[in-house]
């Protein structure tokens, strides 16, 4: 009887660990998809305050806020893009977000 309970506890622990890993992998994929995660999906902004506000709200897959690690400018398909490099201090995840600054230059 004790052996059956021990095996059941081990199976439950392994299942819980597997579910947690799947949930973490899904959250990590979601962070790297969507608006701003590629030059094609650059977020249009009208001011740099818009960009700063968006960066302040951005969270990592682990739940922590991302901090700005650097910025740069890029041109792609006739558009001017601002690229923000973000990093998580808790899990060392990094991410680049693209912002379309074409409206700023008009």
Summarize the structure.
This protein has 106 residues and is α+β, with helices and mostly antiparallel strands. The chain contains two helices and four strands; from the N terminus they run H-E-H-E-E-E. 38% of the residues lie in helices and 26% in strands.
Features:
single chain, alpha+beta, four-stranded mixed sheet, 106 residues, elongated
Written description of the protein model:
With 106 residues, this protein is an alpha+beta fold. The protein has helices spanning 2-31, 48-57; strands spanning 43-44, 67-76, 79-87, 94-100. The protein starts with a helix and ends in a 6-residue tail after the last strand. The model has no long low-confidence stretch (mean pLDDT 85). 38% of the residues lie in helices and 26% in strands.
Structural class: alpha+beta
Strands in their spatial order, largest beta sheet? 1-4-3-2
Strand tally, please?
Answer: 4
Name the beta content range.
25-35%
Structural shape? elongated
Task: Please outline the helices and strands.
Layout (H helix, E strand, L loop, with lengths): L1 H30 L11 E2 L3 H10 L9 E10 L2 E9 L6 E7 L6
Parallel strand pairs: 1-4
Antiparallel strand pairs: 2-3, 3-4
């Amino acid at each position: 009887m004790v052996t059956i309970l021990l095996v059941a506890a081990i199976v439950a622990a392994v299942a819980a660990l597997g579910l947690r890993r799947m949930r973490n992998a899904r959250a990590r994929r979601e962070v790297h998809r969507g608006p701003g995660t590629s030059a094609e999906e650059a977020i249009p902004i009208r001011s740099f305050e818009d960009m700063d506000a968006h960066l302040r709200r951005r969270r990592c897959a682990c739940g922590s806020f991302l901090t700005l690690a650097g910025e740069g400018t890029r041109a792609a398909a006739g558009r001017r893009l601002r690229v923000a490099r973000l990093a998580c201090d808790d899990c060392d995840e990094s991410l680049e977000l693209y912002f379309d600054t074409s409206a700023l230059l008009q």
